[in-house]
Amino acid sequence: MNMSHFGRRRFIGAGLAAMTLPLLAGTRASAQDAANIRMIWWGGDERARRTNAAIDLFKKANPQTAIQAEFMGWDDYWARLATQVAGGNAPDFIQMDYRYMFEYARRGAIRPLDEYLGNQLKLEDFGKVNLDSCSVDGKLYGGNVGVNAFALVFDAKAWGEAGATPPDLKTTWDGFAEKCAAFMKGNKNKRVSATADGSGQETLFEIWLRTQGKALYNPDGTLAYDAADAGRWFAYWAEMRKAGSCVAADVQALHKQSPETTPIVNGRSAIDFVHSNQFEGCQKLVQFELTATGTPVQDGGKPGQYLKPSQLFAISAASKNPAATARLINFLIAEPEGAKLLGLDRGVPASPAIRDAIAADLNPNARKVVDLISSITPLVGALPPAPPRGAGEINEVQIRISQEAAFEAVTPEQAGANLVDEATAILKRAG
Amino acid sequence: MGAIRRNGAGYMFLAPWLIGFFCLTLGPALASLYLSFTRFDLLNAPEFIGAQNYVRMVTADPKFLASMKVTLIYVVLSVPLKLAFALAVAMVLNRGMRGLPIYRAIFYLPSLLGTSVAIAVLWRQLFAADGMVNGILAQFGIIGPSWISNPNYSIYTLVVLSVWQFGSPMIIFLAGLRQIPTDMYEAASLDGASPSRQFWRITLPLLSPVIFFNLVIQVIEAFKAFTPAFVISGGSGGPINSTLFYTLYLYQEGFSYFRMGYASALAWVLVAIIAVFTAISFLTTKYWVHYDD
């Protein structure tokens, strides 16, 4: 019952804030009096070091602004943020994920930023695509912190030793299977398979669907593939498993969606699939050199990959200092001094000017990420429709069902049918 | 009035606990009881939906049944094994060996560390495909599976982890064993009773209240187990829901999918289940627990 009171109070508070703040913002921006910004974000130590350095620099330039930053791992982050928002205690500055943005925006927990565009937020050179990808129902809800793509990473030395050619931007799905088979033929190290098992990777499944002109979700939030599509996806990986090209089920099951648990980092595969901003993280964990390229394509098919914001900086609807927070966001993503300190840790900056400004300081690994984004940019398709509520849960279901298929508890066809059934049920429940 | 004055000092001393109980335990518990009849996603106000959450659980939630099955297997396997192991170690330690406090401390150590994340991480390393356990098996020419990432074995590694943390029931057993008068054993020896007969006829009956206490506590603890499964499966309860403890499912519903109403309902069902198991334990005491009076 306590909770319900908080909920209601927060609602009224948010409503009042939304009504009065635009008025206040006008008067405040000129006065620029003392502002107190609470900031929350997820990430690890490297990101903390970079973020704190950037905050310190901002405080030096804006001594009247106090900033309290709090960070934690991804797992704890969403529970903590939701609890704070529900408790009427939302931080001003919220690091947001693309998927959660829709949920928070549509429930009025984060505020539209359009009124700050051209004033505190100078995002003119971000390009339409990178502003649209941070918008919900036509309103901008966050500053794009970095552009991200799904990438295929491989161990070039292992491929060389196996006498096989690694995949490139033109490799088709069939070609990918053949290359992996060639790798296994020449491979001496029996611990290593050619590739990780991608069947449980939602983004890879999405890319595969898109190369065939399909998608995960329709714009109305319904499922955009059928049981036969999903069945063919699981069958593709069952073939890979049977051929010995991809890692065994119990190896892939150790993957917990973090760089240090990927098969390639653990020396079990010579190919893996990660988001481009994780490339440097993976590279730091291994002795051998990683190379990044695009995911497989379809002959005469459509582009499967797309660029999405790795994350956004958003402002709480309940923030008392939205204008000051917007200035901080601008400093971090659109001013070279701040953006330079953040580097590529949150993705490749959307602004070409910022990209140029930080280019000189990039280490070779960071440069590879920029090169990857630049090389696939001409090949990408449009951003997929917004994921519906419940999409996060469907991601977990796909992981489980891919394991059921990999451990041969169900056939690939049955796995495809199960995925569609369960996903449909989740969407119905969430909708 | 007089009573309050007479007991005032007592209530004062109790106040920290009473305040904590009413504000931090009873209040939230009642709130969660209310929430269990709502749909509540933390961001919007709770919406009252009657008993729908409870109905869904029993009619349309295979994950609820899966998590219940995993938890029951865990309780049924880990509790008796752990108690037997704890009793065996306690009996060895009760022989009046030199340096008993040191051994006692060493054997108790895993229980202190037991609920910590570090131990679960260690466990993950021990039982991984190329972990220490398989390294030892390899010495005997056995190629072990990846215990923690194979759905056929993962739950058993968690049972073993639980049994390994036998320290607290062991300490209680040890205290109980100390209470059994030694003259009973002497008399039994004189009458020619074998050690195993002494164990079944003297030790077990006289220890039964302590066994009962340990049983109730361990059953409750086992139902509430969360950390090892959370860490070892990375919060997923996988592979294929094989380590989806009930509490882990509850956590997922509440904190991964923000269905606080449903998570609250799951929590209250867990309370009811633990109450039933405890009640059964209490009702059966007259058949096997001997109080010394």
From TrEMBL, chain A:
<dbReference type="InterPro" id="IPR006059">
    <property type="entry name" value="SBP"/>
</dbReference>
<dbReference type="Pfam" id="PF13416">
    <property type="entry name" value="SBP_bac_8"/>
</dbReference>
<keyword id="KW-0732">Signal</keyword>
<keyword id="KW-0574">Periplasm</keyword>
<comment type="similarity">
    <text>Belongs to the bacterial solute-binding protein 1 family.</text>
</comment>
<feature type="signal peptide">
    <location>
        <begin position="1"/>
        <end position="25"/>
    </location>
</feature>
<dbReference type="InterPro" id="IPR006311">
    <property type="entry name" value="TAT_signal"/>
</dbReference>
<protein>
    <submittedName>
        <fullName>Extracellular solute-binding protein</fullName>
    </submittedName>
</protein>
<dbReference type="InterPro" id="IPR050490">
    <property type="entry name" value="Bact_solute-bd_prot1"/>
</dbReference>
<dbReference type="GO" id="GO:0042597">
    <property type="term" value="C:periplasmic space"/>
</dbReference>
